[in-house]
Here is the input.
Amino acid sequence: MPVLLLWLGDAIGETCAPEAAWRRPGVADLARVARTHQTSGGGSFGVLGVHEWRCGAPELTLRTGAEIQPWVQPAANYVLRVERDGQAAVVSICSNQLCAIDAPGPDALVDLVLVDTTAWQGPPPLALRAAADAS
Here is the structure.
């Protein structure tokens, strides 16, 4: 059975440096497993949490590369389509505050809408809101 990892915010914990966060006991092991999962073709996707915003997200956590984050996060909010064989792909694109979602094919099983819920916990600073709107 294929496995899809979803990181639902606050993965970096109390520290703002991702490199330090991934060295914490237990978290380092989880990050290693996630990176191995990605390397073998498995999906690993994430959304921001309160701690990531506090630490300078989205500039901090939307960076890509296996050495930085053990997940893919193309934008603050996006749609992830899971196929019947367990493969997953981002199927949404946003520009000018409008979003479009690719039509599902015959093997589409479910669309997961990954949303940054931090806005409902109190508004982020104006500069971070602008950066999220631009993503």
